Amino acid sequence: MFKKTVLPIVLIAAMLTLNAAVFAEPNKSVARKLDVTTFQLTKNLDGTKTFEKNQVISGKAEEGSEITMTIFWFSTDEDSTILSKKKSDENNSEGEWIQQEKYIWEVGASEIFAKPVSLNIGKNRIIISVKDKDGSVVQEVINVEVVPKDELTDYINNMILKNLK
């Protein structure tokens, strides 16, 4: 009789204890912390090159924080392509940053935000400003370059053929 009563109680206590372990802190290696109380991005895109024009900017911020995200595209000379341009500082490159989109929203109770964005081929800059309830502002600048797959493939094929001659 004692075993029939104690065994279910022990099993229920073990299940409740194991369920509490699910609410562990998220993996800190994925999230890049900018400010402990204000804002953190889930994925660090800064300085990356990608084929994907569509990206999702996501992260965590305090409830009630206002997020402003502005997307810029670097317009260069029409005759040159991304791969044929020599690498240089932005100050030495000919062209200008043109604003493409601007989004403003407030973070909800989940304290998680995600915004799908569409980038142009070439250099893109995403500026995220987060203003918390106290009025403090944290800003992050993300530079992403979208490279067309066909252009890259042609460039590599030409380099290989040139070396074979």
Element order: H for helix, E for strand: HEEEEEEEEEH
Q: Shape, please?
A: flat
**Overall average pLDDT:** 76
Low-confidence stretches: 19-37, 82-91
Number of helical segments with 4 or more residues: 2
Q: In total, how many beta strands?
A: 9
Gap between N and C termini: 89 Å
Strand composition percent:
35-45%
How is this structure best described in words?
- This protein has 165 residues and is an alpha+beta fold.
- 21% of the residues lie in helices and 41% in strands.
- The chain contains 2 helices and 9 strands, in the order H-E-E-E-E-E-E-E-E-E-H.
- It has helices at 2-20, 149-164; strands at 32-35, 39-41, 48-50, 54-61, 66-76, 95-106, 112-118, 122-131, 137-146.
- Mean pLDDT is 76; it is low at 19-37 and 82-91.
- Strand 1 (32-35) and strand 2 (39-41) form a beta hairpin.
- It is flat and about 85 Å long.
- It has one domain (34-164): Sandwich (Immunoglobulin-like), CATH 2.60.40.2550.
